[in-house]
Design a protein that fits this description.
It contains five helices and four strands, in the order E-E-H-E-H-E-H-H-H. It is α/β, with parallel strands linked by helices. The chain has a four-stranded mixed β-sheet. The protein is globular, with a radius of gyration of 14 Å. The termini are far apart.
Length: 117
């Protein structure tokens, strides 16, 4: 059972957009975040950075991870930067275990664990 997913886009400044993600990133909600990002980037050509606020992600399975990878490709593929802010420990563990931490965050897999310890 899913808790649903709400993704809210808001400008942080002229060149930066924030996206608050609240709920579960999983099979049942796959596509919601990616559609929002693609639609909004098309309408905001001045946005150079996208900051995903991951602090309210309740659950993320392999479909959710796939969604994050697709979002990364959509953002970086258009010459922009993607940030995954406020990651909870469970999401960090998923990124580390799947070897996607550096790809999605630009951080070494153990840098955050060391910083948080």
């Amino acid at each position: 059972m899913t808790n649903g997913l709400t993704c809210t886009w808001r400008p942080l400044d002229e060149s930066t957009a924030g996206v608050a993600i609240v709920g579960d990133l999983e099979f049942a909600t796959a596509g919601v975040l990616l559609r929002l990002i693609i639609d909004r980037l098309a309408g905001h050509p001045g946005v150079r950075e996208v900051r995903l606020d991951c602090g309210e992600i309740g659950f993320c399975d392999s479909s959710g991870l796939s969604e994050l990878v697709k979002v990364h490709r959509a953002v970086v593929g258009t010459g922009r930067r993607l940030h995954l802010d406020n990651r909870q420990p469970a999401l960090d563990r998923l990124l580390i275990l799947t070897g996607t931490a550096r790809y999605l965050t630009g951080e070494a897999a153990d840098s955050r664990a060391l910083r948080d310890s």
